[in-house]
Amino acid sequence: MDKTKVQTKGTLFKETKWWYYLVAILLVVIYLLPIYVLINLSFRTIQDIGSKVRLPEIMNLGNYISVFKSSAVWRGFINTVILMVETVVLEILVSALGAYGLVRSSNRLSEMIRTLNMGIMMIPGVALLVGTYSLMVKFNMANTLWGLALLSAAGGIPATMFMYANFVSSIPVALDEAAMIDGAGVLRTFFQIIMPQLKAVTVTRIIMSATGSWNNYLMPMYLLQDKTKHTIILTIKEAFNTGNGVGDLPKACATCVVGLLPIIVLYLFLQRYIIEGQIDSSVK
């Protein structure tokens, strides 16, 4: 009787399994449709105003040629890369060191700081916009990439520190003690013993921080009034706003595609390191 029930359940599972694939395909189509429309429009001429779903009548590569010749786009790329690198380095380094110190301290003060850190994570950045802008102006940090990087890193540190703390908690304290016996200091122990074991969370946070910094729109819009300091997202916004929103839409779409491509490539390149890091962590 039990075997019959098991066989019946297995048969029902196989019969309904096609629904999973149907839902998955539907979600993929819904997710990729805006990207398809964006790429489709980027290959059109400004005179082609037909359906956004059908393929263009003439494949126009001139939009991309014009984008790559634009000095504003290259300047936006350089500014964004500088901002992204500064933000990621600050966020990862400060968060990892802070999480290591809090976890290894294991006293009442460290627990209070960790609780406060979780509370800070609940505060949306938009709620602090007025105070943040006033503070940045007061300390002459507006219109500077390093000031924006410092602000972006500060906003990401609570979540990053929270993730690092959970991973550091799973690393035995015996490793620290063994390193101390061998004469290693705190910083050497952290960088040579602890940090290599945090590969999975480090790569994950690098992707999240880099993506957030690359796609950041709100703070750069308010803080970077100087066009020479504009990031690629602000450059894309300017491309769409040319002519009060009725300008060259295909060229604006091409600018958007070029602006989003590097961060997509970064994710595709680093995602395998996430899997490798998770496997390494499970083996250890």
For the record, what is the CATH homologous superfamily label?
A: MetI-like
Unreliable stretches (pLDDT < 50, length at least 5) are none
CATH C-level: Mainly Alpha
Helix content: over 70%
Which class best fits the helix and strand makeup? mainly alpha
Number of domains: 1
Tell me the Rg in angstroms: 25 Å
Mean pLDDT: 83
From the spread of the alpha carbons, the general shape counts as globular
Helix count from the secondary structure assignment: 12
Q: Please report the distance between the alpha carbons of the first and last residues.
A: 44 Å
- Give me the count of strands: 0
Using the coordinates shown, work out and report the CATH topology. MetI-like fold
Order of helices and strands: HHHHHHHHHHHH
**CATH architecture assignment:** Orthogonal Bundle
| Beta-strand residue fraction | under 5%
- Could you describe the largest sheet, including whether it forms a barrel? none
Task: Describe this structure as you would to a colleague.
By secondary structure, the protein is an all-alpha fold. The protein has one domain: MetI-like (MetI-like fold). Helix 3 runs antiparallel to helix 4 (108-121) and helix 7 crosses helix 8 (186-194). It is built from twelve helices and no strands.
Concise overview:
The chain has 284 residues and is mostly helical. It has 12 helices and no strands.
Primary descriptors:
284 residues; MetI-like fold
What layout of secondary structure does this protein have?
Elements: H1 2-42, H2 62-69, H3 71-105, H4 108-121, H5 129-138, H6 145-169, H7 173-181, H8 186-194, H9 199-214, H10 218-223, H11 232-241, H12 249-283
